[in-house]
Amino acid sequence: MKKKECIAMLLAGGQGSRLRLLTKNLAKPAVPFGGKYRIIDFSMSNCLNSGIDTVGVLTQYKPQVLNAYIGVGSAWDLQCYSKEGGVTILPPYVSEDGGEWYQGTADSVYQNLKFIEQYNPEYVLIISGDHVYKMDYSLMLQEHKENNADVTISVVEVAWEEASRFGIMNTDKNGFIEEFVEKPAQPKSNLASMGVYIFNWPILKKYLEKDAVDPESEHDFGKNVIPLMLREKLKLYAYAFQGYWRDVGTVESYWEASMDILDDYDFLNYFDDNWNIYSAPLMQPPHYIAPGVNIKRSLISDGCYVNGEIEHSILFPAVFVDKGSLIKDSIIMHGAQIGSGVKIEKAIIGENVVIGKNSVIGGDGITVIEDKQKLKENSQVGRLYRLKRVDKQAEGVSRYLAESP
Amino acid sequence: MKKKECIAMLLAGGQGSRLRLLTKNLAKPAVPFGGKYRIIDFSMSNCLNSGIDTVGVLTQYKPQVLNAYIGVGSAWDLQCYSKEGGVTILPPYVSEDGGEWYQGTADSVYQNLKFIEQYNPEYVLIISGDHVYKMDYSLMLQEHKENNADVTISVVEVAWEEASRFGIMNTDKNGFIEEFVEKPAQPKSNLASMGVYIFNWPILKKYLEKDAVDPESEHDFGKNVIPLMLREKLKLYAYAFQGYWRDVGTVESYWEASMDILDDYDFLNYFDDNWNIYSAPLMQPPHYIAPGVNIKRSLISDGCYVNGEIEHSILFPAVFVDKGSLIKDSIIMHGAQIGSGVKIEKAIIGENVVIGKNSVIGGDGITVIEDKQKLKENSQVGRLYRLKRVDKQAEGVSRYLAESP
Amino acid sequence: MRNVMGIIHHIKDEAAFREITKYRCVAAIPFGGKYRLVDFPLSNMTNAGISNIGIITSLKMRSLIDHLGTGKEWGLDRKRDGLFILPAASGGNEKNRRRLDLEDIYVNLDYLENSQQEYVLLTGSNIVCNLDLTKVLAFHRQKNADLTVVCSEDYQFLPQDVARGVYLQKEKEGRISAVSPGKPHKNSVISMDMYLLKRSFLLQLLEECASLAKWDFVGEVLPVKVKKIKMYGYVHQGYLGLVNSWQSLYKHQMELLNPEVWRELFWGKGLIHTKLKDGPPARYYETSEIKNVFATSGCLIEGNVKNSILFRKVKVGRGAVIHNSILLPKVEIGEDVVLDGVIIDKNVQIKKGMQLIGNNENPVIIEKNQEIGGGF
Amino acid sequence: MRNVMGIIHHIKDEAAFREITKYRCVAAIPFGGKYRLVDFPLSNMTNAGISNIGIITSLKMRSLIDHLGTGKEWGLDRKRDGLFILPAASGGNEKNRRRLDLEDIYVNLDYLENSQQEYVLLTGSNIVCNLDLTKVLAFHRQKNADLTVVCSEDYQFLPQDVARGVYLQKEKEGRISAVSPGKPHKNSVISMDMYLLKRSFLLQLLEECASLAKWDFVGEVLPVKVKKIKMYGYVHQGYLGLVNSWQSLYKHQMELLNPEVWRELFWGKGLIHTKLKDGPPARYYETSEIKNVFATSGCLIEGNVKNSILFRKVKVGRGAVIHNSILLPKVEIGEDVVLDGVIIDKNVQIKKGMQLIGNNENPVIIEKNQEIGGGF
Prior knowledge:
The complex is a heterotetramer, with two copies of chain A (405 residues) and two copies of chain C (376 residues). Chain A has 405 residues and is an alpha/beta fold. Chain A has ten helices and 30 strands. Chain A is 21% helix and 26% strand. Chain C has nine helices and 27 strands. The chains are: A alpha/beta (405), C alpha/beta (376).
């Protein structure tokens, strides 16, 4: 194997339990996003765009969709058959004595130290497959080197009122981290960790081995490894990332991030051919927009047939929208069939959902309809209607709202 | 997924413990064979040559080398990214509650019933990655259909005196199996099972589910599932295979099969471009044969440098043989370096072994030298010399012989 | 259909496409928002299980080769058989106007000889349809034919394409009794330029052609042979576009705006495959007005688009009005531009305020890699 | 070297290779048992990290395209950059004997313009060596050169190739003061036909060439430009084969039989990649006698072979005596055949008892796909 300067370990095992209906059959990084992507596309594309050609993807929860999606990695120029590295999927391993799940983020990397050792890199980049952001890791690596740091953690400014929901860094005037507090009640700073770390490889190895034998540890980078390093006075630098970053961890934040993308003129890079967000593309014909409809502020993917009004919404591929329907502030996943005269507002419609004509979907909150549900004609689903549970077809519908009204 | 007529499940988890030094770091199907192949190449190529385009490879013991070797399967036109199926590697799976090894051949297929269901095939071909043979499975499938059988088992005639080492089929005059005896002391027939089965898919499913809940079962096809089917009076047909077949299960049989291949003018198909034995090829320059040497009845792979005498031997790629050496009745694995004046007879020299000049290797039995061993100049290794264990370099050398003199 | 191989022949009448074929062969002409013409015959063949396909091309092969790669998108990246790029005889010289030039195949005789399949499907690259070829083979065998030609009973040529058609006299049982290139006659059906025959028969024909130096399969060979062999016509019932000129290229793309055609072609028997490209979903703005439009990924639309086809990464500025037009990849339309009846080739910028008006019979064609307006 | 792109130009002097180039361009000439000439420049580039490479080719492209595929074996099957097949201007017409034809690049100007790299390495396809190109770039930067040419101080042309050489006057610091195509002079060093320059500089040169209609980089442009620009020569110290004719094609392959050359070329700085093919290991029989031979997979040898190179799947019958010969893939030598000083192209059968004798200066060349002897 060729020696590498920097390889990436991408944590993609997340269950995303707060995304509920969206992650029933797949891991959080595999959740579709932005009309044709999956969340993991952002981290994978960041790797390609930053010149990182070796990525270990640590999978765990419901990995099948993710495995099939990543495939041989060629969508991101990370061909697993390349001599240069490429992508390697690293599930928990079963040995003769059985196997068990990774115990935490740090444990998952610890279990794969041998994988990293093959490349004997100088630096290891740890990233997560759960976040929506565009980032050039090579700039972060450059600052890491310039500051002669042991570890560099990427941070982003969050609103002060939200700071207590994040891991917050308190830094000295040179940007070195003095303190790291998970979800502080009284935050001293608004610099939140993005879950993006660069470690000098010998340091990472040493501390993962230390952490592995600590019976008290939960084997988590944020909760255990970073605090230990701080206690032992290592040089931890905070790299200030400028740009959009979002942990898409709840249905609200998923919906909000989708709307953010919809409103950001060029987040998806219409103009820069050299910084694409890559995805494993589907073979779909162009979409068709019928006469006599209105489409405003929306993203429409290939294979759609649109004969209704679309306002401020995202249509994934192969969505069928029949005559006289109105879709507003919503996200319609792959293959959904929307009958005529349907009104959908502030909803997330799952893959291959069928909605009978003249139905009304949506209420005060965000309505989620699970994959493959079939709704009869004239169904009324949403916050107000949920509690009635009138018909059997409503099974699996907007369970999210029922649980947190 | 497209419906398939027949898909293959290839059992590749074998530990090959009787091959010992050859399987220390890899599963038996991954053991190199025949100068440029691994044992699994024969089954994989049989699939391609029989028109089977969907293969599940069940791995277990030390799968890393095998996984890397199979890669995306394109060496056998079984691209895992193809929509048609291709190769899928199926290791034991770790769920939230942990995971454990497959309990037997039948259990490994049972654990992957969902994989088979995706394709909803009419027939399932079960084969093993441990055998050296060339076979057109489509001819067997044709007989299976013509005989309207529930199960067809491929059998080969073995020498009567060896029959008690195999699973022996006793058939009626139409070829239907009346009795199956594992290693009979008094064999009634010399038709041995090759471990190649075709099942009607609904029957396979039913009996695997039955077998799975049987607490007495070892979950093995030969020991449990087939006998159960016979007891329940299913139609089991014996397909008589004509041709070379060998289970390479011991060092002796490995060596003998290698010599058989060496003596068989066309087993490796020099003449038929339409029945290749495919392997994942290496990038190696042609080999070079120096002046003043003798090469007789031997297979020489790419990348070798040959400046010694080679008689009735197989050289894997990138073997270096220095001046005045003699190699006879031996198998030299990838990258071995043989110094000048070395004599090797009836030996298996592991990958990247270095043998110092004027050494003498070989004795009465078969001498095996483990991968990566370095032997000093003038080493003498072999049956006669083994017991002395004179120098530290001999660590790992011919342990096989020491154990069974 | 493992026992059928395909050969896509090289269409020589490039002049009929004007500037469109200046940098590309006919097979590589962009069509329908994200396809190239070759995708249709290629997908029809691979969907039927044909896995050995040779494509004859000229020196203008670069975009075709870029498009096809190793044939991965069509499942043709394989060790056995797969996709073969075959050079035309004498470089696919445009002056040689043979309709189906057997010499192009003859110079690649070793490819044909080394193939293992029993049958050959010879087809043009300019046939837009979604067809189940397994039925053609079944028909061919059932009729015990020497040669089967796929034909259409109701296809209407544009006036300028009439002379480019090949007209067949079809008898009751489907037997073809006459082949007339260029001259329609009463009750004639139209050849779709897809011919199925045994490979051994094609090899024999090639040897005859070589000895006579007559190479035009449709113009010279078939009109004579038809009397001596069992030639049958298999009738294709569905949508058909024979793209023979820039006018029919325009017309048949505009027909995709009929949802029936869109559905039959792209959601029909088999999927039409094409080279996969990256790009975000199309983005429509507050100011956009869209009616009857076929568009694809990477488009950014702020203006008014009607009865038009937009390829990848087309940008339409605010206030622009695009009617009855076809915009190829990376076309940028400035603010307040007015277009009607225009085909704009790749990578053209139309600057603010420009107006280009053609019509349905004679669309304006704008050659690729240009800036129009603005600077001067 | 991510900031360097490569262009492999098309060698036009195909006549110098006689029958060898009847069906293939120079880049696709088989060499050294399993390679084609293009493998050497291509591998040198990819080993140095160059990942955007254009190869100019003529109509005889089929074997080249088959060989290269999407460039997977060289790690060039990628979304960004990768391998591009570029057609030569006017079909790579043989009559046009420009040594390095900038017009071929000019007709592919959009490729050059759309590339992102700062530098371009222009190289021929007939240069057999194993060279670390990162050192050439470091040298170029250190000298702050406008143009760096890789050169050899001790390469000896065969007499018939002397006129095909390009001779450089190199000053002490490596500065090149004169470029003389075809005419060696005292103390001149030899251009290896590898030129490194900024992409912007090449674009500027191309515009100048277009305005003057002078297209021969080596014959017309450099001899003049050398006075005005900072041109430096980087000296390659290792093995070199400039394959300019069938005689040097023979000579340089025979040199591979020197184990020093074999080791330097194939086990040196970087691995020479080529298309991977299936085939069993070479099989030597009881009756074989082998001395000083370079052979590869699929060979079956029963006869006597000395000082020769055997490509894939060569069969040598019992009693045959092969000396000083090069046998290309799938050549079958019958029993008791005698060959000395012969190059046999692909897929030829030499029947029992035939004798073919050439010599080291003038080997016999046997064209591909033939049967020699036997039947008549």
